[in-house]
Amino acid sequence: MSMDSEIFVKFLLTRRSIRKFKKDPVPIDLVKKILDIARYAPSAGNRQPWIFIAITDPEIKNKLSKIHRWAYPLEGAPIGIVVACNKDVSPDSYLVDCANAAMYIMFAAHAYGLGSVWLQTLRNIEDIQKILNLPSNYIPVAMIALGYPDESPSPKPRKELKDIAFLNTYGKTLE
């Protein structure tokens, strides 16, 4: 493995979900860089059905942070990003397409020294559409709280590879 590969693997393995943020604002130019990177996420047929809404308004962040009990990190984050997908552009794959874009946002944020956390949206689609004035064909697939980390969480336990990876058919381990 090359040195670059080792660095990249370490990068992937050190990304954490950050729920506590410093109050320092995130420069909008940095947000633009992150969203520009997200444009390169893979999507079925290269349809790119996503839009990104960067949220700095405290009132909007507060409303979104109250849509369910696990959305609270958004209130304390300097910025939130909602990834929404046009379901008409990619009716069979918009959820996966936008999940890819959301992951690119979180990786780009990590690369620039920011922390982030994925906040579930799919139980609250209509609430989010209303708060953000989204048309009904734009489905909010993810909210991401973003900012400079004010915590350093340890890695969470992971399932053993032997329990989740199979060869050719379910149940046949890779060993």
Helix/strand order, N-terminal first: HHEHHEHEHEH
Number of separate structural domains: 1
Annotation, overall tally of beta strands: 4
Q: Give the rounded overall mean pLDDT.
A: 95
Distance between the termini: 21 Å
Supply the CATH superfamily name.
NADH Oxidase
Biggest sheet, spatial arrangement of strands: 1-2-4-3
Task: Describe, in plain words, how this protein is organized in 3D.
- With 175 residues, this protein is an alpha+beta fold.
- It has a single domain, classed as NADH Oxidase, CATH 3.40.109.
- It has helices at residues 3-14, 28-38, 58-65, 73-76, 94-111, 125-132, 161-164, and strands at residues 50-55, 79-86, 115-119, 138-147.
- Helix 2 packs across helix 5 (94-111).
- 33% of the residues are buried.
Short description, anyone?
The protein has helices at residues 3-14, 28-38, 58-65, 73-76, 94-111, 125-132, 161-164; strands at residues 50-55, 79-86, 115-119, 138-147. Helix content is 37%, strand content 17%.
Keywords:
single chain; 175 residues; alpha+beta; NADH Oxidase; 7 helices; 37% helix; globular
